[in-house]
Amino acid sequence: MNIRITMAQVAARAGVHPTTVSLALRSHPSIPAATRDRIRCIAEEMGYRPDPALTALTAYRHAKTRRREMPPLAYLTHWDSEWGWKQTHAHAAFQAGVLARATSLGYRMEHFWLGEPGMSPRRLSDILAARGISGVIVSSHLPEHDQPLQLDWTRFSAVRIDCLPHMPSLHHVTNDQRSITQLAVRRIQAAGYRRIGMVIPSWWDDYVDLAWSAGFLAEQLRFAPEDQIPILLYSDPHSSVAVASGCESLVPARAFSEWYKRYRPEVILSKAEFVCPRLEELGLAVPRDVGFVELYLVPDGSTAGVRNNCDRVGALAVEVLVGFMQQHVVG
Questions:
Q1: Is the pTM higher than 0.90?
Q2: Residues 6+ apart with CB under 8 A from 107
Q3: Which among 41, 272, 290, 324 is positioned nearest to 188, based on CA atoms?
Q4: Cα gap 316→243, rounded to integer Å
Q5: Sorting pLDDT into bands at 50, 70 and 90, what band is 22?
Q6: Are 127 and 111 in contact (CB under 8 A)?
Q7: Torsion (CA) 207, 253, 248, 146 in degrees, nearest 10
């Protein structure tokens, strides 16, 4: 019969109070690092394991305990202007999802713009700490601001939404662009189409670490050789301007015309802003002459496509962050 080692037994062996053991095992910053490491070693040596039922009960009791005012969560952005990110549907939906879920859990949200004059990582760290903020959501960064965000991370629990900034390596929540593309391709095939083409600007693919093209190429491996059409991946010298303005990069007319006439796709997988004006210039109508499927369908979209559920991404980021805060996971 296995006998469960209790926290009190670990505390007795370590010569500390059981509360100290509890805080140490949750990496609480109030316990010195050396003491945390010593207690962890003793707990591991004794074979201590948390009781999952008790952990669930504790979380439940905390959730039921109402506070007069919860500390706010910080929402950090670095766009061309303080509210410029709201011009893009995805980033506005991220924030809406964060706000709704934070409110439902009893938290307020405060927005901080990293481009504010005089703002520095050290100053922001001090501002957040002074306001009692321990939870940080990093979101909506332009590519040109992809620089290491050097806050004093020992003070904060943090989650990143989307792909930027790449450093530090925070836990992050974002859309699964590879699966989105694969889902689109499979639904297109289920509708009876065979020759599927993809058209995207290279900056859009780079932004998600090539996830859009990876999903398409993974599905294309299952195509018959005669149905495999190369991706039209084009460059755009104004990519950062396109991101900041919310206006997407239109595929060059000549490149698109040559690609279409050579491969004759039955369906094009892309974004309307990338290709639809070019289809009109060639006298092609959707769906009469060629099918079109939107990779990033907005709620009022008039074409077939995949809804990316960006509001749910924001909500999930809050849920992950609150879990970290409850467990005192920082850094």
A1: no
A2: 70, 71, 72, 73, 135, 318, 322
A3: 290
A4: 24
A5: confident
A6: no
A7: 30
